[in-house]
């Protein structure tokens, strides 16, 4: 698995039958949790849809063994997720919409930094999970591209290509937690992604005030010091680089009027 270091910054492999991961000799990680279709029906446009029973596998806290102490000290955690190919009825394979629970150590709902490894992704995000969702964005990203979700925003990760499984890594707060109640109360996020052939179109969720969806491509984030290198390798090179994930107050000015 040595070649994966250049791609991901970690010596690991992704598997799809069954969904999961294997780790190199110097990498540790948990057995992946499998999210089944029944687990996410409440956040889908059609809760009765058909699709793969195992929708995605998620492994939180993947790391090189020599990085464990530093990650704990900095309250950082690296997660890896891989999706099944296919579709969920008329929708693409996707995660449940959620917001991040407020971390006790920071008092903030933490941001999250995604890096796409395989497939094509759309990171959908909205400012609020309230009747007025505020600004809404769909960020299109391919392998090697990064997407930053700011603190407190509702979001979901969508596979934009039903023929290719999506895999991504993400930097998270070590006290990560997902809150689903507000999203489920609104029958999902403010915009539903739908597959038309192999293309994504968008349908507004009538549980929210009508608004505008901005579809954009992934960008670089030089204001946060992020480079084009694999995000785990960036941590190896500079362990302080992603402190704004677990301590978002350090970037408080950058979150104001943030544009993904």
UniProtKB/TrEMBL annotation:
This enzyme's EC code(s): 5.3.1.9
Q: Does the keyword Heme apply?
A: no
Q: Does the keyword Cell membrane apply?
A: no
Pathways involved: Carbohydrate degradation; glycolysis; D-glyceraldehyde 3-phosphate and glycerone phosphate from D-glucose: step 2/4
Top-level EC class, please? isomerase
Q: Which residue numbers delimit the Glucose-6-phosphate isomerase prokaryote domain?
A: 53-206
Q: Which reaction does it catalyse?
A: alpha-D-glucose 6-phosphate = beta-D-fructose 6-phosphate
Q: Which UniProt keywords apply?
A: Gluconeogenesis, Glycolysis, Isomerase
Q: Matching Pfam families, A to Z?
A: GPI
Q: What is the similarity comment for this entry?
A: Belongs to the archaeal-type GPI family.
Name the UniProt record assigns to this protein: glucose-6-phosphate isomerase
């Amino acid at each position: 698995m040595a070649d994966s270091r250049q791609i991901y910054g970690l010596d690991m492999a992704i598997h799809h039958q069954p969904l999961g991961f294997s780790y190199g000799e110097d990498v540790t990680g948990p057995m992946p949790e499998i999210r089944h279709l029944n687990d996410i029906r409440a956040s889908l446009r059609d809760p009765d849809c058909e699709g793969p029973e195992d929708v995605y596998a998620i492994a939180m806290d993947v790391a090189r063994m020599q990085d464990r102490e530093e990650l704990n000290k900095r309250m950082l955690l690296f997660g890896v997720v891989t999706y099944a190919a296919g579709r969920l009825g008329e929708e693409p394979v996707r995660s449940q919409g959620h917001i991040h629970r407020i971390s006790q150590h920071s008092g903030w709902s933490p941001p999250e930094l995604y890096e796409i490894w395989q497939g094509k992704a759309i990171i959908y995000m909205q400012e609020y999970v309230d009747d007025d969702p505020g600004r809404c964005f769909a960020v299109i990203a391919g392998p090697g591209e990064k997407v930053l979700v700011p603190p407190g925003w509702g979001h979901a990760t969508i596979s934009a290509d039903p023929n290719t499984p999506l895999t991504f890594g993400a930097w998270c707060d070590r006290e990560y937690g997902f809150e689903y109640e507000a999203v489920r109360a609104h029958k999902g996020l403010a915009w539903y992604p739908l597959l038309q052939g192999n293309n994504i179109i968008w349908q507004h969720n009538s549980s929210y005030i009508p608004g505008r969806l901005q579809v954009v491509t992934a960008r670089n984030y030089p204001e946060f010091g992020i480079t084009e290198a694999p995000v785990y390798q960036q941590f190896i090179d500079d362990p302080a680089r992603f402190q704004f994930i677990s301590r978002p107050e350090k970037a408080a000015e950058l979150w104001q009027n943030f544009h993904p």
